[in-house]
Amino acid sequence: MSTSTAELPVGRMLLYGSGQAGVQIIRDTPAVLLPVFMSTMLGISPWLAGLAILVPKLWLILCDPLVGNWSDRRKASWGRMPFLLVGAPLTAVGFGLLFWLKPLGSEGSTALGVAALYTLMATAYSVYLVPYLALAAELSPDPQQRTILLAWRIVFTMVGVIAGVGFAQPLIGWAGGGSRGWETMGLVFAGISLLAMLCPLPVAYGVQARGTTTTTTTTATATATAATAAAPFLQQMRQAWDNRPFRTLLAAFFVQSVGQATSYAAVALMFIFVLGKVDLLIPFILVLSAGSILSQPLWVKLSQRLGKRPVFSLAAAAWSVLTLSWLAATPGGPVTLQLPLLGALTTEQGLALLRAPLIGALNAGFVLMVQSMLTDTVVLDRLHHGRSSEGALSGVFSAAEKLAYAVGPAVAGVVLSLSNFHASQGGAVAQEALAISGILLNYSLIPVLFVLASVWVLSRYRLTDADLPASR
Q1: 228: CB partners within 8 A, 6+ apart
Q2: What's the mean pLDDT in 358-382?
Q3: Would 216 be classed as within a structural domain?
Q4: Please, which residues have CB within 8 angstroms of residue 131's CB and are 6 or more apart in sequence?
Q5: Which tens digits make up the pLDDT trace of 415-439?
């Protein structure tokens, strides 16, 4: 059966995707810098810092699916827009306050203060994020159109990475370092993220005004998109569990995300202690992001030709080989090259820049495939049950990611503590060779083991574009 499916307007894809820049800042900046902030400014040991991140995110395992169910049940009357409108400013305020914290007497009290504020911020973030993710499955019934939409979201993901990872740490230094630098960074990126997160509001309003997707679909899909009211929370969770492709994808995504989160927790430490040039983080992230953005047409075409699961496996395996090469990195070394704007670089610093575009391209490949497969499993659930479940399934997926980004820093913190990493207040201090080895393990071998395990888990995923009516 052939079907004519209207293309999504580029303007709508840009508005939707731009929200991801703010989402990425809120996700990545604490993931990368909060462990550093706690260890070097608040005097919290790495293992306790990891615990302070882990405990709030345990709440989000329940919070995200609850928000998803709530947004599904209010979809007919409210739409997704009120969740975005309320969640965005509350999230930005919580983010800004997070980096204004000071030591609260004992190490344990300070860690508890971080955990409490982080919990409040993360709850507001859930109110925004879960309905935002759900919109992707509602904007088009066509799996290839959703892949293109999500490719744009990857582009804005890299904009968020450039800002929240590439410029956040240097901004602290530009603002004078110390407490003032951290406070300035928090306020600046809270404002940037708020502006970006408000951009998808017209898209959410448009979906609500039309009551359904705007594309021409088959009779089966049209029936499915006119879904009845959302099921109660527990029933939605049972439906999610019965959706085998979703269950398999969720498990693979969680395992992969733990590895990615472990790497994120170590990236700032890599540039401070191993590469010895924190200012190199900006060009590194810029080049990495360029590789990610420029590779999007390639991944879209490969997914259409080979299928999404094979492309995920290919990109993840190549990324793992490249990431293992960091194990050979050593601090220091003589200057071996001079580059415009960057000045004198050691061999290790030069090799880091050479890796960057490939890391960005390969990482974007398997992340895009996961996001696209998620919308496929959500549409499959809608077809099978005739109910609105986009929010609930997106909430479960979001909860898995947030749990992974709590487990990852906890794993990294344990490795650093076992490696005798020295916590400090007021700034970084010199570390022993064993601590440097712990940083390298967190940035290379440990993430690779998790990502390769996710490839094995996803080998049981069987859903393809041909299984969804809009592509027949």
Answers
A1: 386, 387, 388
A2: 88
A3: no
A4: 67, 68, 71, 80, 83, 84, 87, 204, 391, 394
A5: 888 888 766 655 566 667 788 888 8
In sequence order, the 6+-apart residues with CB closer than 8 A to the CB of 197 are 19, 22, 23, 26, 84, 87, 88, 91, 92, 128, 132
pLDDT bin (cut points 50, 70, 90) of residue 299 is very high
Q: What CA–CA distance (Å, rounded) separates 164 from 168?
A: 5
Please give the structure tokens belonging to residue 19.
């929200």
User: How many domains does the chain divide into?
Assistant: 1
User: In terms of residue numbers, what domain contains 444?
Assistant: 10-209+222-471
Torsion of CA 39, 44, 46, 52, to 10 degrees: -110
Neighbours of 337 (CB within 10 A): 13
- Predicted confidence at residue 226, as pLDDT, reads 41
Mean pLDDT for 163-186 is 86
* Cα-based distances in Å from 47 to 44, 346, 433, 434: 8, 32, 19, 16
Residue 5 is assigned to a structural domain of this protein: no
Are 294 and 358 in contact by the 8 Å Cβ rule? The answer is no
**Cα separation of 162 and 165, whole Å?**
6
Question: CB 177: neighbour CB atoms within 10 A?
Answer: 12
pLDDT for res 1: 29
Residue 404 makes CB contacts below 8 A (sequence gap 6+) with 253, 254, 255, 257, 258, 260, 261
Angle at 98 between CA 97 and CA 102, to 5 degrees: 95
Alpha helices in 325-430 (DSSP H): 347-385, 390-418
pLDDT at 206 over 50: yes
Tens-place pLDDT, residues 80-119: 888 999 999 999 999 999 998 888 878 888 899 999 999 9
Identify whether 4 is part of a domain.
no
pTM of the model: 0.74
Is 353 within the bounds of a domain?
A: yes
CATH number, domain of 326, equals 1.20.1250.20
Percent of the chain with pLDDT over 70: 88
Q: Give residue 419's Cα distance to chain centre.
A: 27
| Torsion from C-alpha of 367, 371, 373, 375, nearest 10 degrees | 180
CB count in 10 Å sphere of residue 174: 12
